[in-house]
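G., before I forget:
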Amino acid sequence: MTSGIAPAPVAGPTAPAPGARPVPVWLRVIRSSLGLWRVRIGLALAALVVALALFGPLFAPHSPSAFVGAPFAPPSGQALLGTDALGRDVLSRLLNGGRTVVWMSLAAASLGMLLGTFFALIAGTSRPLVDDAIMRTMDVLLALPVIIFAVLFISLLGPKDWLVVLLVGIAWAPQVARTARGATVEVAQRDFVRAAQALGVPRRKILIGEVLPNIMTPLTVEFGLRIVWSIAAIAALSFLGYGIQPPAADWGLMINENRTGLAVQPWSVIAPLVCIAVFAFAVNLVTEGLARTVAGVDRSTSS
Amino acid sequence: MAVARIDNLRVELPGAVDVVDGISLEIEQGEVVALVGESGSGKTTVGTSMLAHARSGARIVHGNVTIDGVEILELAPDGQRELRGKTVAYIPQEPAAALNPAIRIGRQLEEVIVDHERAVRTTERGERVRTALSDVGLPVTDEFTRRYPHQLSGGQQQRVAIAMAIILAPRLLVLDEPTTGLDVTTQARILAIVRTLCRDHGIAALYVTHDLAVVRAIADRVIVLYAGRVAESGPVEDVFRRPAHPYTLALLGAVPDIARRTSLAQIPGRAARPGERPSGCFFHPRCPIRIEQCESGEVPTVMLAPGHLACCHRADRAVQLDARKLAPPRPVRDPRPLLTVDRLDATHGVVQVLHDVSLTVHDHACVALVGESGSGKTTLSQCIIGLHEKYTGTIRLRDHQLARSVRGRPREIRRTVQYIFQSPYNSLNPRRTIGEIVGLPLQFFFRSSRREMQTQIAAGLERVGLSAGLAGHYPDQLSGGERQRVSIARALVCQPEVLICDEVTSALDVSVQAAIVELLRGLQEENGLSLLFVTHNLALVRNIADEVIVLSDGRVVECGDTDTVLDTPQQAYTKQLIADTPSIERVGEVTRVP
């Protein structure tokens, strides 16, 4: 899957423009979705959080692990957002703690999309027996709550970043597969796919060249959703102590470490909480805007 | 006095783009008026304006619609609701969409009465439902009224929709292509029912259609629409015998007819859609006899005979235009068999759809496979192309027995037999450019280099009458006819010997159909292609095929030379099929314009 939430190429332009070169539709989708306030706001907020995560460490006044004062000290000139449970600067930890959430959620969502789409394409174009075998296996996986599934393996193998990404990614595969398989089945029975079959085009080429471009629309929307859920799952795992390990700075972990001081020094909990919430909210806004635009622009799945 | 009257109607889309303008018409009691036009001509818009309705986005800007002396556009929304169904009833194209799938049909019919006349007693309601059902020739049994819509055939559903429309004894019926998509036998029944209902009950009817042969079969008067304007109107006999507007003439020339083989005249250019209509007479860019006056200004309406009007500068011209030219006789065919199907039995799941079907397509011949829906004609063609594998029997290409599945067939065979799909809206990948679509088989069969491909794609597009510049466009920038040409180009670049055409014109307008049929005919004669032409349209068969095979319920009923089979059918089924096919010529020959 592509990285980021750039919309995939969708159908050809809707209006014939005699003489003009056709504008690729994904560009048109982006253009018209940018007309929606929800997309503008969402992109701005997401960019803000990503910028905070990427460049934050450069502006951190202290080292994220340096002790700058008494535990749960209120905001002061020394520590703008106060200190945390161990007396470290909340602002510095906040500026350092975003990278993990951002990259891990993007990576887990992408992995889930790759796996889910792969199985969906196979299942949606196979004999009923193979289709059932794949999809029922997915259903079994779907029955396991993500967190429990991840906690199970992490407690066996130990908490590692790549393992969290891998497990969350695998956990999303069934959800992606369900969406993608429905779209695949719909596209696979259309005549242009049969035309390619009649030419004897190999299945792999049909799946990549004919089917995949036509299911990019639901996949794009699904990708946005998966990012949102990955943020929540990874933050939750960190909170539970199965994700990022102390003393590293991480928003999810910060919430867990400081929750005992919520009444004394609320900034230590609220600041990372707001960052996570804003990121999830922003991605959600963009996803929804794209979905709406695509519904108006993309006519390939109808007719 | 006329039951229904439209005066100077104008309907607009946002941006003051007119869909129709200056439409005036009258319908007398018991009269059927046909509204004919190609897609985009505004015929449905005029039809629904009779119910004081415009589709979403469109707006009735000015004009009067009077029914029984009541100006319906002025009525309050409640009054209009009361009017719909009771005074004016609408019968849509898709009967299945008009019926609620979850309610038994008896109930649905009763609900119409309940909605409009609350006080009617149950016993009387039942009586009226039974009368309506018998009026449309449906069984009047409890067993039947207890059925759900999905338990009826398409023709029965359409008759229920008609029963629903007439149950309140409306003054006017608006029928919007009610037989499109139905088999000819069913169509013939529906037409007869509408005819009788209008005569016996004195209902006026506006029959919207694109099919001129149907017009001749049902209507008293016809109104020809082009680009949202009335091009010509008058009694059916007058208009068909002495068409005055060049567009009417062109349409008549484009329709294939079962009576004889003609060469189908193409109308150059594209129909003018809302927003892209030229000045002056809208038809002038496509008109063969245009003069300078046609290009700007008002177009006069000329009366040619009582009630026969044409909107044309040259309606009274002395120019001779021959609407229907006989096609030249077909060259003698090569008797070598190219494609042979022998004793084919095919199944879908547990249902056997083909029984012991055999056929032969000779070199350079065009064989038509005719049948109604469900006759198994598509299954047969898919068996031949290798997309349907559940069959016994053999299919040969010359001496080579074909493997059941397309994957088991050698590359050379797959290249030689090409398939063109029914719907051009469904057979081109919307995410690929025209160049990529046509280039796929080139890449696959000939492993052409990039540069070779460019020239071959351009040549392929030009061969089917498209500009090579379209290669960079996406399918949805093209019209239906252009898309079908792309489909044909994709098949032709493979340099096939047999082309299987599965209802390739059924989704297209008649003028576009004419162009596609002539294209196929030309290609076949130039390149010595063999065609297996699958269709339900006997008129087309007469026009394009050398031989015909009539399929019914998966069995070959009759086969042989086209003219022999159509002129002297031997089997009852074929006779019925031919009798049910409406014809624009059978009533009387279309003659030259005086």
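Chain A touches chain B through 30 residues (CB under 8 Å). Chain A has two domains: 36-97+264-303, 99-247.

More on Monday.
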